[in-house]
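Private note to self, pasted from the team thread so I don't lose it. Backbone tokens:
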């Protein structure tokens, strides 16, 4: 019964009945006896349903409801909505992580018309975790749109290699372009979970580029352990990179923007895991970290709005990167489970984030702040 109807029923009967009788008259019949007994024992706030109240003519439906015992209606109960503690995936050691290459054939000169507001000309974007995976592709989206980019990563060699291959890909896709129109892409070492490392890195970026206008935080990782057996040092490391790293980087960039009294745009890479609980792989600390990233963006969006600094989140769903490919190779069942839960039925490719990051980084989204842009094939809407 809707609250308004409940209030009307109470008002209509209140003059004629005792308060307790009035409440029971307005409640659904099934709850009334429980309420009456709780009033007798003085326990006002419980109305526990009794398992024995079964409909003899409808045993199947009862077994599928809270009247039934766990598993009574079949092994399928909860099958698509539970974690499986046997799924365990550790984030690989640095030297075992696969490299990524820039996307080919997605940039280059084109004559299709588009809004000028999407241009990133005259911007300098810091992309953390930009040496590979989603970060590298988003860095490429920003330089293809006109920005100079600072790739910030803990892996020095990979960052340097990626900076060079981004510039090289741009040259190849824009033959004959003037030298001063080739984006400047630099590589910088940083452990984003360390305040001193972050400070030094931002100083180095400003020294090399003169300014920073944008930040994209893609440094992050996930692993799978069931909550009870998750080693504490690994949880701290995970939160250190995903949460502290996002916080420290954004504060340092915001300070620089405020010092220059310049507007800017910050994009955090969260995850759909910040809004839903993935199944079947257990990953409670990662999910909590990404929920923290999402709400950090909302909080900083409010705190820094006065300075013209926008803070938004992109929450990707399952994306097919070199790393997720390896996880799927090791756990073939996961691919079917994951894609069966995505309305579009497909995992995303890293390049599916190129438009989203350019939109949120550019003036095309000037009135968008604190938003969570889900790029997940519809996963989180079902
Ligand atoms: N791949 C997906 O399906 C997916 C889905 C949703 C969200 N995400 C998120 O996207 C982001 C990027 O994921 P990815 O798949 O590209 O991962 P990736 O492992 O391919 O790349 C992450 C990069 O971050 C760097 N990094 C790690 N720790 C760092 C640290 N302490 N300081 C600086 N750099 C560090 C790594 O060296 C690496 O280059 C992560 O935050 C991840 O949680 C990924």
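Design output:
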């Amino acid at each position: 019964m809707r609250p308004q109807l409940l209030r009307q029923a109470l008002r209509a009967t209140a003059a004629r009945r005792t308060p307790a009788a009035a409440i029971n008259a307005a409640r659904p019949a099934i709850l009334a006896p429980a309420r009456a007994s709780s009033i007798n024992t003085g326990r006002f706030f419980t109305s526990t349903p009794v398992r024995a109240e079964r409909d003899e003519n409808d045993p199947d439906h009862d077994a599928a409801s809270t009247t039934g015992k766990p598993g009574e209606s079949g092994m399928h109960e909860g099958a698509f909505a539970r974690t499986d503690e046997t799924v365990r995936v550790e984030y690989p050691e640095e030297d075992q992580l696969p490299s990524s290459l820039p996307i080919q054939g997605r940039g280059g000169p084109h004559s299709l018309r588009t809004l000028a507001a999407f241009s990133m000309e005259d911007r300098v974007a810091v992309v953390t975790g930009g040496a590979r995976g989603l970060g590298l592709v988003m860095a490429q989206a920003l330089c293809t749109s006109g920005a100079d980019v600072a790739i910030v990563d803990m892996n020095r060699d990979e960052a340097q290699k990626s900076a060079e291959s981004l510039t090289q890909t741009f040259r190849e896709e824009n033959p004959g372009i003037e030298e001063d129109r080739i984006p400047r892409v630099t590589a910088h070492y940083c452990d984003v979970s360390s305040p001193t490392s972050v400070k030094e890195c931002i100083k180095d970026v400003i020294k090399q580029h003169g300014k920073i206008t944008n930040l994209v935080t893609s440094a992050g990782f996930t692993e799978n352990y069931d909550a009870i057996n998750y080693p504490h040092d690994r949880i701290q490391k995970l939160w250190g990179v995903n949460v502290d790293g996002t916080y420290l980087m954004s504060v340092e960039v915001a300070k620089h923007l405020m010092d220059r009294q310049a507007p800017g745009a910050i994009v955090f890479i969260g995850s759909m895991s910040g809004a839903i609980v993935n199944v079947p792989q257990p990953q409670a600390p990662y999910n909590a970290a990404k929920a923290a990233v999402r709400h950090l963006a909302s909080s900083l969006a409010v705190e820094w709005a006065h300075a013209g600094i926008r803070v938004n989140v992109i929450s990707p769903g399952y994306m097919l990167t070199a790393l997720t490919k390896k996880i799927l190779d090791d756990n073939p069942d996961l691919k079917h489970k994951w894609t069966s839960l995505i309305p579009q039925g497909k995992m995303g490719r890293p390049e599916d984030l190129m438009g989203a990051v350019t939109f949120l980084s550019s003036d095309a989204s000037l009135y968008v702040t604190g938003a969570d842009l889900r790029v997940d094939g519809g996963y989180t809407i079902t």
